[in-house]
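Record format v2
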Amino acid sequence: MSAEISVTYPDGRTVSTVVGPTAGELLRKWNPEGFGPVLAATWDGRPVDLSFVPASSGTLAPLTFRERAGRDILQHSAAHLVAKAIVERIPNALPTAGPPTEEGFYYDFDVRPLTPEDLDAVRAAMDRAVAEDLRFERVEVDRAEAARLAGSNPHKLGYLADIPPGSPVSFYRTGTFLDLCLGPHVPSTKWLAGVHILGFSAITAGGVKDGDPRQRIRGVGFPTKPELAEFLKLRAVAEARDHRTLGQKLELFSFSDEAPGFPFWHPNGMVIVRELERFVSEHYSEDGYREIRTPLMFAKSVFERSGHWEHYRQNMFLTEADGREFGWKPMNCPGAMMIFQSRARSYRELPLRLAEFAPLHRFEPSGTLHGLTRVREFVQDDAHLFVTEEQIEGELVRLLKWIDRAFTTFRLTWSYELSKRPAQFLGDPSEWDRAEAVLEKVLKGSGIEYTTSPGEGAFYAPKIDIHVRDSLGRPWQTGTIQLDYQMPARFGLEYQGADGRLHRPVVIHRTILGTWERFLGVLLEHCDGRLPPWLSPTQVRILPLAERHDAAADQLAGRLRTAHLRVDRAGSDETLSKRVRQAEIDRIPYLIVLGDQEVANATVALRVRGEKGQKTLSESDATARMVRAVEHRSFDP
RNA sequence: GCCACUGUAGCUCAGCCUGGUAGAGCGGCUGAUUCGUAAUCAGCAGGUCGGGGGUUCAAGUCCCUCCAGUGGCUCCA
């Protein structure tokens, strides 16, 4: 009965013990001081409950919130608590699945549409359950018993059928609530005091378009209430940074009911767009790009040739003229192909880098529109590189360098994703394999970390996508680099090689910042509207202390404009404090106060955004400082 | 596009549950104040309550519908 086993701990210590103590008891004995809240354990690397009783020799380690597996266990236990609460309120609700996610957890239910009142009731029921400190009790049963327990829930019976024969079937009991579940779980509901319901929404089963309707409750869990409070605080701060709010406050852009998804760029916003365009254009001149402009719409035949008609039409705005069908271009590639094709080309012209800043139109489903980050009309920093097979790698390496420089300028962090051949694709799989291999080789050769997404490529090419995150941590795709063998073939592109024969170029489609719209949306949230001086619509605001300083302020404004700074001048009939406050709210990088002292000494009192107080310096020193920050495109003023 | 929720002054919101024909703060305008680094005082203007339809003696308020927005789902730069 009292068989001896040996237990090995993470620090390498091994102890002998009789069979009987639980994982939790063994861990306490090993490290009585504890390591903060232990949620569960791993036994031979496999997650188990703290109530698990080791019956043979093995290794035992604690799982805390710091480990992803531990964190997931807490989230999943929280999901059980939500299910318990829902079933208590709506007895005929059928729980389906409730996994942990990147952010927290959710649980999907087959149930009538939920209401905000339901959510209040769920929150209250969860608080009660936490106060009652109910155990998560593991119940292992045989198949027949499992089928009986899952009983009235066809979804659970479905999951049961998916469990391989011979594998143990377990349920977890929390109070009166019983759920089919692999586990493990936290020991009891006391561990779930830091759980918060984020919201609910309707979804469709399996995430597919025509799936059965389900109700999803989303939440997030932390080991303690203070940690939850910290999370909620950060979240509130992030929400206050929403680019849609900032765009309105700073008068950058707006939208109208009568043009859903189409941004209106106000004067302040337009300054930023033009500066971004100038930033990119300067790089283009340095890096051998030529700029083009091609039609905003084409006859259907062009899109039939490019493949858009077959693969992208549902995302295009269509129109009709002269009895012919036209489409608004969703991408610039067809126009670029047609310019390449317009005359015979020599290998001496390659790589031919054609850039285009043209408005593109995509018919995005209404439910997907979101501020500036998902719109129906936008402009990309787009270019098409026509290259020989040998030039591909060199061009890609140049692009990766530009990405580094560009995103560093904005102090953004970004990540790479390699997207491979989708289900619907043009051309020959072997060409896709070749293109994918080249992209992979360049990424690896540059020592870049990236994720791989099979099936996520564009219909005409595999791609390297660039993602940045917004203030709520939601990732957004900005740039994309696509290696395309299809479009040149479909447009019959050719150049004459040194060998005198005709060859087909390869096309690299690339946009780096992505679209001005999405990029600016993310950037605004990133910096809370405190744009670097070179992008600020107003770079300097002059505050005359009193009316008698108005004339001097106007003259200074004129001189600063001559130095190519964007300047405005506040009126003098409000208090200085109020005008300084307004300038801070307007996120103006530089404030200059002019009073008797400054006028008398030809100095200015310069207040720099983000710095406390102000300093008095000569007008020329102040001007030089501001001009330098703007010209160097410094991130901070 | 799907589901739920929301739509009141330029902005943020109260009023809606329990129908009796609109309210605050900020902003704007006017006047006073001329001030030394995050909100000076007073007055005035501003809304056919998202559009349409219905119920009712009476609709911002209740019902239907369309549009838009928000949160998710799917999709995507």
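Residues 533-631 of chain A form a domain with the Rossmann fold fold (CATH 3.40.50.800).
DSSP finds 19 helices and 33 strands in chain A.
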